[in-house]
Amino acid sequence: MAIRVLLVDDQPLLRTGFRMILEAEQDIAVVGEAGDGLQAQDQVRALQPDVVLMDIRMPRMDGVEATRQITGPERDGPAKVLVLTTFDLDEYVVEALRAGASGFLLKDAPADELVQAIRVVAAGEAMLAPSITRRLLDKYATHLPSGDEPVPDTLHTLTDREVEVLKLVARGLSNAEIAADLFVSETTVKTHVGHVLTKLGLRDRVQAAVYAYESGLVRPGAQ
Known about the structure:
The protein is an alpha/beta fold. It is about 45% helix and about 15% strand. The protein has helices at about 10-20, 35-45, 65-70, 95-100, 110-120, 130-140, 160-170, 175-180, 185-200, 205-215, and strands at about 5-10, 30-35, 50-55, 80-85, 105. Strand 1 (about 5-10), helix 1 and strand 2 (about 30-35) form a beta-alpha-beta unit.
């Protein structure tokens, strides 16, 4: 089954470029386009895409609110949202991740990186490249906890090993990389990640990473 993709960007030329790249792949099908967040909502309902490639800055409804509407809990099997950013830095990227986006990608990323990101997000993983994540969170360091604040009560529900896994997720490591770091199987890591998400009431690994930084568990630039 091909991965069904909806392109959302207010610049037609960019949508055309993305379409050309994606339609060259046998396992990806572009099922529609939208020029703003309101159109995106309608297209998601009508076309049922697997992945929405979402611009942030658009007229009428921006990508943050559109992401929130598309990935909301009232939807059955919501589409995954992959946010596009010019990375000047878009100040709305963190809000998009909180709203339920499964990751973010630079608009000038190489074609193969765009294709891989869509495959990763469609498979239910988070597109959380460590280098981009660190730049994003370093940019927001002044807005994140200093580390002196009380630890949220929800964090105490995690076991020591689950806390270790959460820290590594926040650094952008994949399940395989976490398994190698902790000398456990990848299946064990998947189980720990699932427990972390369930206990903290989080949607996916991206929200887990944001939580780790906002709670003060991990600091920008820390290893």
